[in-house]
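Sanity check record (used in CI):
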Amino acid sequence: MVMATDNSEQLSCSQVRNVLASKQIGTSDLITEIPQVVSGEPKGICTSSKTCCLAKMEDHLVSAVKKDFLSLVQATSSYLKNLIATNTVKLQESLMTTLRMAETNTVNLFTTLYSKMAPAASSSVTRLFTRLSAFIQGKDVDVEEGVANFFDSLFPLVYHHSLNPKLTEFSDDYKDCLRVIRVELHPFGDGPRRVGAQLSRVLHSARALLDALRLGVEVLNSTEHADVATECSSALVRLLYCPLCDPNAVSSPSLANAIKDTRACNGFCMNVLRGCLANVADLDDPWNEYVKALESLAASAGAKGALTVDDVTATLPTRISEAIMHAMVNGPELTKNVKKKCGHPQRSTRDVAVDPSSMQSSNLSLVPSEVVSSASPAVVHSDLAVHLQSFIHGLSQSKGFYANLADTL
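Expected output for Dally:
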């Protein structure tokens, strides 16, 4: 390829320089003062017979077109990504709010019905809900184990304050023995197992939905930052950026029209984009399956009659109180079995005086549902279900997103 100065026309490269400068492409020393005639076989990407750009400018054109192309892909997918990311945050915040409400209601249960054990029980309640919250946040936590540990720590308190309220504080060794034998003696009946199983099931479903949403954002992020193949960048440069170096095109009244006129036809433009997005288009089937899976998860979470995080946590204070009542009803038999395993109660070396007026001041005329927060879990669940349904409806419109991406661009 040979470049020679064209003196036959009074064309200037000033407009080429201005346009490229406005787009921050290359440097002015890569632009000639007057157009150069290209003779022989073109060696670069651009094949115009007349140009204002030196050969090294093509490297800058390639960099610019890659940046612009990825920005266009990002702009096209940004709505979808923001839709998923925003609803992921909203869902997690809703779940965390539900857990905080349940923790408050559980603390209220002990304060109102089991005030004597309330101070010691509060730390066990905090540990339980800290563990449940950590699970929702993606930590490696065993929910059923957390529930079991809570009832393990609750048993010494119930055995002391509800079954032996006249005794002073138990020794630490005796408390440890009570915690160890809790599973064997089943002082709370089947309550702990059922609570653990239900909490585990609904929290795993909620976390599966959150994990799936986060996966969708990751997929879209990978698309936005995909490598642009050499064949793609070269085709895009020829389609859009080579005309920027052509003084005839830039001198046209409308640069947009000039660039449009250089395209052989709309089909050529579409073929270039489809070629650039060939690998991305392969994601369409997996993406459609992903959306279907989310639809299924959301349908299960919002199905009529299906237990939800709100349902299970709302009844947790009642379940805990029922477990304590079970131990109290079976007190004589339970005491006999405890003495077989741990012996007679060992008192703490810390001499704690017993105030008769403060002995288990349980207000058993109340029921657990009367001491929980006035906030309605049903309303929370209803709002969440409606919001989730609206989100999934919007997401369903994205089926075929990758297959139609070239047309959208």
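Confidence is low (pLDDT under 50) at residues 253-259, 351-362, 372-377. If this sentence no longer matches the regenerated tokens, the check is flagged for review.
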